[in-house]
Amino acid sequence: MAETYLDSTELVLNMGPQHPSTHGVLRVIVKLDGEKVLGTDCVIGYLHRGVEKIAENRTYTQFAPYVDRMDYVASVSNGLGYCLAVEKLLGVEATPRAQVVRVILTELNRIASHLLWLGTHALDIGAITPLFYCMREREYVLNILEKYCGARLTTHAFRIGGLQYETYEGFEQECLAFCDMFLPKADEYEELLTGNRIWVERMRGVGILSAADCKAYGVTGPMIRAAGEKWDLRKAQPYSGYQNYDFDIPTGEFGDNFDRYLVRMEEMRQSVRIVRQAVAALPAGPIMAKVPKVIKPPVGEVYVSIEAPKGELGYYIVSDGSTQPYRVRVRPPSFVNLQALDKMAKGCLVADLVAIIGTTDIVLGEVDR
């Protein structure tokens, strides 16, 4: 559809929802002047499944596996946030051993999430080799998760009050072996990409989002850190004992695609640091706190947020004293970060839009929860 506007010819184009580079069923209505993007409008809802409404018709324990299906690339983080929220309602805390195992699995899952992002994003821009390399290393993490709880993707690793499963024999050794193997591989990814002229030209100065814009839109995670803000909930509002670990918060300078790439690369290395410290500090003891068999939190409401791979993942739960939550509201980072797409895309080219969606790192299961 072409229309005349201010003596120029505009074109309105549908990108998606069946487009491989929209990373799910996202439909972007793009207004173009030639190949220049004048504006975008995101149409979501193609994957809607009503997870929050389902919560009102399930017990607290029954609903726990549903959260793994939102950001299915980082299901361990989803489960951690939900368990922490219900535990806060109950007034209980996971045991020291359970907290450390939670940190190990969550950080391994952060690496797996970033690896999938890096491989698919590189593929969007035209580099196919990094996808094979990233999938190869991600497989090691999935193998550890599968050995631990039997699942690879929608990993239901935690339970309200701690863990259902004790770690398997050789768990610590396999985690450390992965850390030793992974760091040289991360350097290999950077050798392929960071100095690559095509990669730099497609990424540097494209999709700029300032720190002020991030705050205005509620953008969190690697995107706000790429804009120079040292905001990480693991440091700002520590949970699960993160205050006991020594790690850095990587930040960028310009808030463009390239900075978001560099931040995520460094985040994977910091996750390796955390995993090594957690394995060294893993205490003996029980894996479950004393939680009643029938969970009936007292009347009240609670909001708990964690630093998921894509940003702040929050759970707001209202209890009416029954075995089922009265209301569950999820604050998913993919959904909130997607708001900023129009701001980042204006003035760019259609090809740049593909790169911008990639560095936003969205999962539509979380957007359309």
- Weakly predicted, low-confidence segments: none
Could you name the CATH homologous superfamily?
Answer: Cytochrome-c3 Hydrogenase, chain B
Q: Which structural class fits the helix and strand makeup?
A: alpha+beta
Radius of gyration: 21 Å
Short key terms for the protein model shown above:
369 residues, alpha+beta, Cytochrome-c3 Hydrogenase, chain B, four-stranded antiparallel beta sheet, three-stranded antiparallel beta sheet, 15 helices, 9 strands
Question: What features would you describe in this structure?
Answer:
The chain has a single domain, classed as Cytochrome-c3 Hydrogenase, chain B (Orthogonal Bundle), CATH 1.10.645.10. A hairpin with a 2-residue loop joins β3 and β4. 47% of the residues are buried. It is built from 15 helices and 9 strands. The protein has helices at residues 51-55, 60-67, 75-90, 96-125, 129-149, 171-193, 197-203, 211-217, 222-226, 233-236, 257-280, 333-338, 341-345, 350-360, 364-367, and strands at 2-5, 8-15, 27-33, 36-43, 158-159, 162-163, 300-308, 311-319, 327-331. With 369 residues, it is α+β, with helices and mostly antiparallel strands. The strands form 3 sheets. Strands 1-2-3-4 form a 4-stranded antiparallel β-sheet. The protein has a 3-stranded antiparallel β-sheet with strand order 7-8-9.
